[in-house]
Protein: Amino acid transporter transmembrane domain-containing protein
Organism: Zasmidium cellare ATCC 36951
Amino acid sequence: MYGEKKVGEDLPPVQTRGVGEIDDLPKIDDVNQDAVFGEISEDGPNYRDVGWMGTVVLMMKTQIGLGVLGIPSALHTLGMVPGVIIICLIAAMTTWSGWMVGVFKLLHPQVYGIDDAGQIVGGRIGKEILYWGFNIYFTFLAASAMLGISIGFNSLSLHGACTAIFVAVAAIIGFSFGSIQTLGKVSWIAWAGVAGILTAVFSLTIAVGVQDRPAAAPQEGPFKSDFKVIGDPTFEEAISAVATIVFAFAGSPAFFSVISEMRNPRDYTKSLMIAQGAVALVYLIIGIVVYYYCGSYVASPALGSAGVTMKRVCYGLALPGLVASCMLFVHLPAKSIFMRFMRGTKHLTTNTPIHWMVWFGCTGGITIIGYLIGSGIPVFDGLISLIGALLASFMSFIPMGLMWLHDNYRRSKSERDWKWTFGVSWSIAMIVLGAFIMIGGTYGSVVGIINSEDRTAPWSCADNSNSS
């Protein structure tokens, strides 16, 4: 494929190096000559132009968006205490996964995407599984972002047009912004997106706290929130709620692309810890407060919980964040496909006609497929739960566990201390839990979509902003 280089050749030895010991790793800080992009010149895009703060916001934006809007509903299913515990557990698991991405990239500078890591760990089969898994996953994310934007348009306009038209408009927006070439140029839009979505969800949080009752509750007579300390869900409902929380945190498969475009990849861990801490804190605050005040009357997406007026205000504030999510979810899989075709050729870093034709072909293809999925599965809760179960659980936990085992399992007996034993146990647990959530959650999500009262027909004109 246009002279694609084989990933995994001439790798540094890793069997005798403990994870996290990075002082003697190959130097990859030179932005003019890169192990992935080759020579970066002024004649083309500078792919190594993301600073550590830009990295923080890109990590946050791959997570804070559609996922946070499903957190209160997940707490309603699980109950307050189990829900908070699971949020903290998933936060810890995904933080470890993100950390493992950074360590693996520093050990193997040739890696650009998670599919390259798959080739190192599992050969050609591993590469293809993770290549297609990543691209399908983020194409589904693009679909969910388009669906979220259409809900926002319906809320702001009071269903001023056919929903199918709003999804198409969202697709055009995603293509336009997603076609920006580099993450360095995209990061400023991500800043606006994070600010918008955070403003919206905190406005919602304040609104449900000061209002007498949520919008869906009976408007006459006394009202007391019926939130549950411990829920009583069926297996299908519980595992679908867990998958929704996984979806909210599952940005780590994209972190390979982010660290590959950093000016100084050794700042990655600092950026990761700031981003993950902020994301977990936001999810806990939003989830606990909104569910505490709304109880069983919480809406999904959550921005509809405070009534029509506040819903319009919140979606107006959140719209830049939804657009930024759609932009990233189009850009990242398109970049993955583009790299596979252009890597090792002059067209990768030079603005030739072939460069532009292939790039727009990639972003356009992802947009079209995402539009078809978003219009074909028009159930917000069910779609994000399905994505979280089938794709996010697999991509966010299993590969990272295998990556740790690949780099550390064969260490000599003298190095097999308690840290090594814990690392093996934790990695295996990540793989097993990822597989369990993937299988169980997919079943639960499919059942939920089939039984959903909010389900509309594909390409329907019906208003999709009134689910609760």
About this structure: The domain at 48-451 is CATH 1.20.1740.10 (Amino acid/polyamine transporter I). The first helix runs from residue 52 to 61. Residues 1-28 have pLDDT under 50 and may be disordered.
